[in-house]
Write a structure and sequence with these properties.
There is one protein chain. This protein has 260 residues and is mainly α. 69% of the residues lie in helices and 3% in strands. The chain has helices spanning 2-7, 9-38, 43-70, 73-94, 101-124, 131-142, 148-159, 162-174, 176-181, 187-190, 210-219, 233-245; strands spanning 195-196, 225-227, 250-252. It has a three-stranded mixed beta sheet, covered by helices on one side. It is globular and about 55 Å long. The two termini are 18 Å apart.
């Protein structure tokens, strides 16, 4: 599963983004506990602050379908990274006030939709027989730095302050921004077309889009499709797999099966 992720461009991007994001979120939330406690806040206040932060995640899970319909994977990841980094910096200024819960809760509203979109996109690129191993690999990668977050937070709070610790986690989230720009675009966003070389069905035309491909696949008749060579290899692989699942033979010009 890990080897498959490494060989895939989205998998490599996910392998950097996920641990950094979880490291930043976990560390920032733990820093709130330490920072408030060192400044004399009661256990009730700390519990209330943590509850407000977690409400952001609950709201995000409920709103995930609506968010996903308006943002592509790349855009949602980019928005999450930018807002997460900026609002964690705001939290660094606000702490040790209980109001620190607000800037930390907002990024968690976007997190469920982004995570769901990434998982979905990764699974679409994975052969069915590899789903279990790849899913396990994704989880391993996502939690790779989780154990370091509270340790780093504790060391920085002890040696410097909660504000410096929060600033470090904001920097970790900022590192996700360039990674988000490297996430491959989705087929739907790119509006890919295929040029049909044979037309056993009258409804099919040269340059037919995905809906026409679907009708061809449902007919059970073989259609040879040429994938434009200008497409990225990852996108060609997705088109090829979609055609093959529909019972259509795909011919990749200039790209070998191994490369695809």
């Amino acid at each position: 599963g890990l080897l498959f992720l490494w060989r895939d461009s989205l998998g490599r991007a996910f392998g950097v983004q996920a641990p950094l994001s979880n490291f930043a979120a976990g560390g920032a939330i733990f820093t709130v506990i330490l920072g408030l406690r060192r400044h004399g806040s009661s256990a009730v206040v700390i519990g209330g602050v943590e509850a407000v932060v977690m409400v952001g995640g609950v709201v995000g899970a409920i709103a995930a379908p609506q968010i996903g319909r308006h943002l592509s994977v790349r855009r949602s990841l980019l928005v999450l990274a930018v807002t997460g980094a900026l609002l964690t910096l705001v939290a660094a200024v606000v702490i040790p006030s209980p109001a620190v819960a607000v800037p930390l809760a907002v990024p968690l509203v976007l997190a469920p939709a982004t995570n769901a979109a990434l998982f979905s996109m990764m699974l679409r690129r994975t052969p069915p027989e590899m789903h279990g191993r790849v899913n396990n690999g994704v989880i391993q990668v996502a939690v790779a730095l989780a154990a370091l977050a509270p340790l780093v937070s504790g060391l920085l709070v002890e040696q410097a302050s909660a504000r410096w610790a929060m600033a470090l986690f904001a920097g970790s989230m900022a590192l996700v921004v360039p990674i988000a720009l490297l996430v491959p675009g989705e087929i739907d966003d790119a509006r890919l077309r295929v040029e049909l070389l044979e037309q056993p069905i009258g409804a099919l035309e040269v340059g037919a889009e995905a809906p026409c491909r679907s009708r061809a696949a449902s007919s059970g008749e073989g259609v040879r499709a040429r994938i434009p060579e200008a497409l990225p290899v990852d996108a060609q692989h997705e088109v090829r797999r979609d055609l093959r699942i529909g019972g259509v033979q795909a011919e990749l010009l200039g790209v070998t099966d191994h490369e695809a």
